[in-house]
Amino acid sequence: MGPVMNTVYNNYLTTYTPKPLTKYDSHKKSELRNIYNSIVKLNKDAPWYLPTTSKDTQQYAVDLKENARGLRNTIAQLGGLEKEGLFRQKSAYSTDETIATVSYVGPEDAVSDLPEFQLEVHSLATSQENLGLFLPNNGRVTLDSDTYSFDISINDMNYEFQFSVEENETNREVQDRLVRLINNSEIGIRASIAESEGRSSLRLTSESTGLTGGRDYIFAVSDNRTSKTAGTVEYFGLDYTSREPANAHFTINGEESTAPSNHFTIDKLFEVHLKGINSQEQPVMIGLKTDVESLTDNVYHLVGGYNDFIKAASSYLETQTRSRQLVREMSGIASVYEDSLGTMGLNLEADGTLAVDRDTLHQTAAQSQDINKTFSPLKSFSNMLLRKSNQVSLNPMDYVEKVMVAYKNPGHNFINPYVTSSYTGMMFDGYF
């Protein structure tokens, strides 16, 4: 990936993609081929439109696609990509989520009576922090006007940062420049400014935690062998480590253990995120929820994904006229199953979202003689949402107000990349 493409990609991720990536965002060649064939067919039959130039409209279209991707991934995480897999995802519990949260990552056919694990957290994994000297904000830099550089060593890589110091520049101006320089490099270190009584310090914090490979540090800053003028490390105090990195220390069923991260797995069954330290001797219990509780969690997850999509589309009702059509179509899907969903405790609201009556939902699941039959309407609803999210993701421009130029000549039209390039160009606009 060249430097320009890398810039485009990073801008796309940071601007338009707040949702985390999942394993469902990677695809086989056959899946990509199917998407390509769908795009070809779509472009062949689509009319000609004037290009969309409004920045707000462009962001709306990209945001629409990303929210459709998020809804699809929500359904996929519940097993909705397989014919009989929906709502079979097991759920795990933690008796104290202020100490640790947990999710089940084991096989789908796991028995419900898996053993519980006792977890006691003694200390959390911490990142490394270097805190520089506190210098007067408005004080003039006493370094000579020159081009300076320093090196940061992290993850067996050495990065050199070069910058210029001009005459009459203040300490804060140079510190702000270094914050931007380091953060834009994206090497795994966050730079920020610490302030105190008119003085400021440059603070460097590692994104990773803990210690690996026998090292006693995550990153090191120096300018002993740098290519430009040295002296900035000493002047700004960048090599002072104010917080040493440390591993997490905990016990599982009484056995001492450590991890460089606050995120780890237990016996390939449970994924654990440490949040705090046990203040009492009472351990945190981790285990598998009952089938009824797992089903209830899955339904909540689905409803949450659906509601998030409706709310995201509704946020553009005042600025994007076609968004109303999308909200209406999504609400229409829910209204088809409104009576069936209502008996399960899922009630359709006036704004198109779904509200869950937990008691009714739990009672329906607990009293059901055949879970698959009882919740078959919800599965059909999920399948409709999956198809709709795929459609929106494939062509978000269908919900953008556009000016039509002409219909294609029936029977004599041909394949062209117009619609796709119109959407893709939004990601590249301004870079070429």
- Give the distance, in angstroms, between the N- and C-terminal Cα atoms: 16 Å
Mean pLDDT: 85
- Biggest sheet overview: 5 strands, antiparallel
Number of helices: 12
Q: Write down the Rg.
A: 27 Å
Instruction: Tell me the β content.
Output: 15-25%
- Structure summary, number of beta strands: 20
Gross morphology is globular
Oligomer: single chain
- Spatial order of strands in the largest sheet: 2-17-4-13-14
Poorly predicted ranges (pLDDT <50, ≥5 residues)?
1-10, 428-432
Please, could you describe this protein's structure?
38% of the residues lie in helices and 22% in strands. It is an alpha+beta fold and 432 residues long. The strands form 6 sheets. It has a 5-stranded antiparallel beta sheet, with no helix packed on it. Strands 5, 6, 9, 10 and 12 form a 5-stranded antiparallel beta sheet that branches. The longest helix has 24 residues, at 291-314.
